């Protein structure tokens, strides 16, 4: 297989909501189509990629560094020993002449291409991506469906406690059993009222609620909130301090008894390894949220999973950030603990196939070839427009 052309664009995924750290009024992302020379039913196979929410588009880096390297490579440099497209070998080509460190600068750009290459490889094999990943990188026996939780509970202008409760009831009605809300964007007493309002909707069961600080707290506030919420027995307390403040996380983990989750703003094997070495993360209860789409793609995510296994971590303790269809396939194929979901947010890229149904908090990745973005009608229209 050869890639004959690459088409890149930037689209908005903006909204009026905010977490403790940013609003999403200018949020956007890169989309990519890789057109191959393989023709099926009279049409070339096309691999699609996009970047997950939370980081802005990486279109310039793609256009100036990653895609030129792929274009200039010898065609066989992108193939495996069987002559099939190898996302892992293409990854090495993209990273030629890149020094180590500084991962956040380019990990999104590489992740977008890595996603499109995996989409293409699975389409060339005529199988859904979870099957391709399971056969190539896993044990050949993927999970049939994946635990998903509904993320929301953002701050928004004029949003009342009743609005927050209605939002959460909507998630339960849609088939979710565990929900997530933002904290840290108000003071402690107001956030406790918000948390208790949501726990009421969950029938008093705090273990079905996650709270997310988006990296806002200093150590003192992290501990203060931790002591106030420990009694609720929450599912997890997320990204409490700055994502790179491993000492803060380690101190918090000595004080806070219930699960902690973090990792959505770690973009490399090396960052994730530092979290495990220095962040006090506890393999019997905590969760790692590295998002493959933001952090150099599945090629790097496999290295993260290997590192975690060597440190005694089960893949079930990984629940990626991002709420997108790429990680859903990865979660099923590599037996992760689950995947995030944002019902209705970050459109058109976010979420799963239009036909996907969440039942008792689980969803299947679907059986269209590749990632199956063709099953997300509005997004597919945008993607098709990229390459005509
Ligand atoms: O608000 C955001 O940036 C999204 C986020 O943290 C999450 O999905 O966990
Ligand atoms: Mg988060």
UniProtKB/TrEMBL annotation:
Feature type site, description Transition state stabilizer: 53, 180, 340
Keyword Transit peptide applies: no
Site (Increases basicity of active site His): 291
Listed InterPro entries: D-tartrate_dehydratase, DgoD-like, Enolase-like_C_sf, Enolase-like_N, Enolase_C-like, Mandelate_racemase_C
Domain Mandelate racemase/muconate lactonizing enzyme C-terminal: 161-259
Keyword line: Magnesium, Metal-binding
Co-factor note (free text): Binds 1 Mg(2+) ion per subunit.
PANTHER family: D(-)-TARTRATE DEHYDRATASE (PTHR48080:SF5), D-GALACTONATE DEHYDRATASE-RELATED (PTHR48080)
Keyword DNA-binding: no
Name of the molecule in the record: Mandelate racemase/muconate lactonizing protein
Xref: Pfam families: MR_MLE_C
Cofactor names: Mg(2+)
Residues that bind substrate: 19, 53, 99, 154, 180, 238, 264, 321
GO molecular function terms attached to this record: D(-)-tartrate dehydratase activity; metal ion binding
Residues that coordinate or bind Mg(2+): 212, 238, 264
Gene3D superfamilies: Enolase-like C-terminal domain (3.20.20.120), Enolase-like, N-terminal domain (3.30.390.10)
Active-site residues, Swiss-Prot/TrEMBL: 182, 321
Superkingdom of the source species: Bacteria
């Amino acid at each position: 297989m050869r890639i004959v052309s690459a088409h890149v664009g930037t689209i908005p995924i903006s909204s009026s909501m905010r977490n403790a750290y940013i609003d999403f009024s200018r949020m956007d992302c890169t989309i990519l189509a890789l057109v191959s020379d393989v023709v099926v039913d009279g049409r070339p196979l096309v691999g699609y990629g996009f970047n997950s929410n939370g980081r802005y588009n990486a279109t310039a880096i793609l256009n100036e560094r990653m895609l030129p390297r792929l274009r200039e490579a010898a065609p066989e440099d992108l193939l495996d020993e069987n002559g099939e497209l190898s996302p892992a070998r293409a990854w090495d080509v993209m990273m030629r002449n890149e020094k180590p460190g500084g991962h956040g600068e380019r990990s999104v750009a590489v992740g977008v291409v890595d996603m499109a290459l995996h989409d293409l490889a699975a389409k060339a094999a005529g199988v859904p991506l979870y099957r391709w990943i399971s056969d190539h990188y896993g044990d050949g026996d993927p999970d049939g469906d994946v635990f998903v939780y509904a993320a929301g509970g953002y701050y928004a202008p004029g949003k009342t406690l009743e609005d927050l409760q209605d939002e959460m009831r909507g998630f339960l009605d849609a088939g979710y059993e565990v929900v997530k809300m933002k904290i840290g964007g108000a003071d402690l007493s107001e956030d406790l009222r918000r948390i208790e309002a949501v726990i009421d909707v969950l029938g008093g069961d705090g273990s079905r609620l996650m709270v997310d600080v988006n990296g806002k707290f200093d150590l003192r506030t992290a501990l203060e909130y931790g002591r106030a919420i420990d009694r609720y027995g929450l599912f997890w307390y997320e990204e409490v301090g700055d994502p790179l403040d491993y000492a803060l996380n380690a101190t918090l983990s000595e004080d806070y008894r219930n699960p902690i989750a973090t990792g959505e703003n770690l973009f490399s094997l090396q960052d994730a390894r530092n979290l495990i070495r220095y962040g006090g993360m506890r393999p019997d209860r905590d969760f790692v949220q590295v998002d493959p789409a933001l952090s150099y793609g599945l090629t790097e995510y496999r290295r993260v999973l290997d590192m975690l296994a060597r440190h005694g971590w089960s893949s079930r303790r990984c629940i990626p950030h991002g709420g997108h269809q790429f990680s859903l396939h990865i979660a099923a194929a590599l037996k992760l603990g689950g995947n995030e979901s944002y019902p209705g947010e970050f459109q058109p890229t976010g979420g799963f196939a239009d036909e996907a149904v969440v039942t008792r908090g689980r969803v299947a990745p679907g059986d269209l070839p590749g990632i199956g973005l063709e099953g997300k009608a509005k997004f597919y229209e945008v993607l098709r427009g990229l390459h005509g």
